[in-house]
């Protein structure tokens, strides 16, 4: 909203300095500062409100050190992250931008599902919360919306080179085109078009590309949001590792939406995608501010309201900047947490069927609980996971030139 106000002041009234709002770098900085202040100032008030209403966490007995002390800690703190992100975005972005619209839909959609889950846990005293099938339906529904918008909407394009003949000269022109192309890390000429998977269908195979693209989007959204949800098991872990991934995605969004840097780095130029940098900055500021209260010992938990939303946003951002194949690296912590659960459950069922007694690979899953069982303090676990997350984020960014 402020963007349109300052645009009017600059173009109509010619007020000096008003034109600064047209720069993404300025609005991104302002979004980060505003979201950080909102989460710090109003986050404290919300925590006090949750505490006064006794909206505390019901902790299951997992036999972990320090677990009993967490009982009664206010949950549903993901509301702090959502509000601190959405308010700066509404004030500082171009609201007609399709990527901003899609990210706002993602935030509100998954935030609502997570809020319902937390509401059931807190108010209904049901530790299981929203049934898993309904969470999956919500994640699949969001993936379907995201996939359809990114595939069918006319404003979602990439820039392609096209050689045109003008007289006796060949001139390379750049045109925005619809495409399901994405980036393959570490490879030269590193573009993969999902449509090519259906090349065997016939000459019009590209018209069926949605049959491949949309299911892939659904899978990624579901997997990453679940990964973030599983990671939210100890103080500061989900927020700390997520902010690292979010900042790395901010780098990708900025260079992909900048014609000069995308040309210099020889990467895919995605028109209008640079606006996502403002959203990402707001999300990063909100996560950093939330960490002030969520760091050990936490005075608030984000709950599924926060974790499901953060995971879905990371997935949508990666898909939008055509870097979803980097997610196993960029979200390596989420992947490890997911795999630890899958391995643990699968091996337990296999050994129970074969030997009559279930055996375990880890002392407990997800992975962070394994280290807790080994006697490692949770603050040390979080610090080391964040160090690994930083290394993975740097590796992901390096792929811009490492091919």
Strand content of the residues, in percent? 5-15%
Radius of gyration: 23 Å
User: Strand order within the widest sheet?
Assistant: 1-2
Helix content: 55-70%
Q: What string gives the helices and strands in order?
A: HHHHHEEEEHHHHHHHHH
Major sheet attributes: 2 strands, antiparallel
Quantity of strands, as a count: 4
Total helical elements: 14
Mean pLDDT rating = 87
Going by helix content, strand content and strand pairing, the class is mainly alpha
Characterization of this structure:
It contains 14 helices and 4 strands. With 403 residues, the chain is mainly α. The chain has helices at residues 2-11, 24-52, 78-92, 98-123, 132-152, 210-231, 237-256, 259-265, 276-294, 303-320, 327-330, 332-355, 367-373, 378-398; strands spanning 158-166, 169-177, 181-183, 191-193. The model has no long low-confidence stretch (mean pLDDT 87). It has a two-stranded antiparallel ribbon. It has a two-stranded antiparallel ribbon with strand order 3-4. The radius of gyration is 23 Å and the shape is globular. A hairpin with a 7-residue loop joins strand 3 (181-183) and strand 4 (191-193). The two termini are 41 Å apart.
Kindly list the characteristics that best describe this protein.
403 residues, mainly alpha, 4 strands, globular, two-stranded antiparallel sheet
């Amino acid at each position: 909203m402020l963007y349109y106000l300052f645009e009017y002041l600059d173009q109509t009234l010619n007020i000096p300095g008003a034109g600064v709002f047209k720069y993404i770098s300025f609005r991104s900085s302002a979004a980060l500062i505003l979201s950080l202040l909102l989460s710090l100032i109003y986050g404290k008030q919300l925590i006090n409100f949750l505490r006064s209403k006794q909206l505390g966490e019901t902790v299951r007995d997992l036999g972990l050190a320090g677990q009993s002390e967490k009982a009664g800690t206010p949950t549903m703190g993901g509301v702090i992250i959502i509000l601190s992100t959405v308010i700066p975005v509404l004030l500082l972005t171009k609201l007609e931008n399709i990527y901003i619209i899609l990210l706002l839909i993602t935030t509100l959609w998954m935030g609502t599902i997570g809020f319902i889950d937390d509401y059931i846990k807190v108010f209904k005293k049901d530790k299981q919360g929203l049934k898993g099938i309904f969470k999956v339906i919500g994640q699949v529904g969001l993936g379907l919306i995201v996939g359809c918008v990114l595939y069918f909407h006319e404003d979602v394009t990439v820039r392609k080179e096209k050689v045109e003949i003008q007289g006796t000269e060949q001139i390379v022109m750049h045109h925005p085109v619809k495409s399901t192309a994405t980036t393959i890390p570490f490879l030269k000429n590193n573009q993969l078009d999902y449509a090519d998977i259906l090349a065997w269908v016939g000459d019009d195979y590209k018209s069926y590309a949605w049959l491949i693209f949309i299911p892939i989007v659904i899978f990624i959204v579901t997997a990453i949001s679940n990964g973030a949800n599983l990671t939210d098991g100890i103080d500061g872990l989900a927020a700390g590792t997520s902010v690292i991934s979010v900042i790395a995605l901010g780098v990708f969004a900025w260079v992909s939406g900048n014609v000069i840097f995308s040309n210099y780095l020889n990467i895919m130029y995605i028109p209008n995608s640079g606006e996502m940098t403002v959203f990402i900055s707001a999300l990063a500021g909100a996560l950093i501010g939330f960490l002030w209260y969520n760091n050990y010992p936490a005075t608030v938990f984000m709950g599924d309201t926060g974790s499901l939303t953060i995971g879905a946003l990371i997935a949508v951002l990666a898909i939008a900047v055509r870097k979803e194949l980097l997610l196993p690296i960029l979200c390596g912590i989420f992947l490890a947490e997911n795999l630890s659960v899958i391995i643990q459950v699968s091996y337990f069922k296999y050994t129970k069927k074969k030997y009559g007694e279930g055996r375990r690979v880890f002392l407990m899953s997800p992975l962070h609980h394994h280290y807790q069982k080994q006697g490692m303090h949770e603050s040390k676990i979080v610090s080391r996971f964040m160090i690994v997350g930083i290394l993975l984020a740097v590796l992901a960014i390096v792929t811009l030139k490492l091919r």
